[in-house]
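User:
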Amino acid sequence: MDEEVSVITKNDQNIKHLKSSLHGWREICVLTNRVLRWEQPFHPAIVFGVSTIVFTFIWYMDPSFITGISMFLVAVCVLDYIVPFVSPMVFPEANWNATKEKEFNQACSNIELAKSTVFETVTSLKRLKKTNPWLYVAVVTVGLSTLAWLGKQMHNLLLLYFIVLFITAIPGLVHHGLAKRGLSYFERFTKKAK
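Assistant: Predicted structure:
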């Protein structure tokens, strides 16, 4: 019980820290959260369209790996400087209200949840490595071999594009209950197969 309270308290602290570090980005975070959750019928088209435009641009430019990473980091650095400076001019402080604050808190909670899910997955793999090394080797080997096989079958940029589309679709699928419905269909299918 004390451990659960400690985890909740740490999670709240992480969310507060994230909110303070994203203060200049809060309007962008709220808009992004709305679009990723597909609150309007046209939001999936925006998500997939933006992803497609970005990957088409990368494909057209065909940068080397180092150049691509460098340009991505330059873009992140410039945006990190410009957005907090320009955001108050585009989104006046007077327009910020309790509803937007609640949505910003939800967006920060979603980011923290995604981060903790990644860390929990890594921790689970480390625990599996200690408790059952043979299963760990089998799971990692099969997973990475499958990824390597997929990478051999299609262009790496195309594979990354599909991975990004899948990851960006998760919040919308979860928000509309489609992920839960798909999981229940999968569970029914596996029960019938047995």
